[in-house]
Amino acid sequence: MARRVRDKEGEHVLVLNRKAGPSPAKPKSRRVEHIELDVAYYSRQGSAWKAEWSLHDFVDCPGLDSAAEFFIPNVGITDLNGDGKAEVTIPYKLFCGGGVDSYTVKVILREGTLKLAIRGDSLVKLPGQESFGGEHQYDKTLLAPTYALYKQHMDKVWDAVSIDVRK
After folding, report:
1. Could you tell me if 139 and 147 are in contact, meaning their C-beta atoms sit under 8 angstroms apart?
2. CA gap 156, 135 in Å, rounded
3. Which residue segment(s) compose the domain that 122 sits in?
4. From the CA atom positions of the chain, what is the Rg in Å?
5. Dihedral (CA of 38, 43, 48, 53) sign
6. What is the spatial distance between Cα 148 and Cα 154, in angstroms, rounded to a whole number?
7. pTM here?
8. Which of 25, 63, 121, 132 has the greatest number of beta carbons closer than 10 A?
């Protein structure tokens, strides 16, 4: 997925990529056990594009179930503080395990060099059983009053992506 972004600093491109295949530990396996998620944010510099920042995360789960996905409908470009600079919000999940387990959820917000995050586990809801998981932690910086608007926005994204209802 790619998305064009314009702000007071110019033109940018956000690129999200997912690559899946066998684990490097078992390269001949036919199972998807290694999944990489990559994000890159480029800025136009004259006629060229320059990488401004990137994000890389992955799971490697030989012999186990694995998943790694961006929550594409919840990827967002905002200007919450009205400074004319785009903020980019990227939520995604990672999973490595078997059975009924929570998956790891991350909501990352970038504004230039500033990186803020909420990290934790999905809240698993099973019919007729008590829910489990759902714990999460904030980057210490995100708790500063300066970033209250960002935290409020990221909490809404967290609430939208972290609930895992199973049938």
Report:
1. no
2. 15
3. 2-165
4. 18
5. negative
6. 10
7. 0.94
8. 121
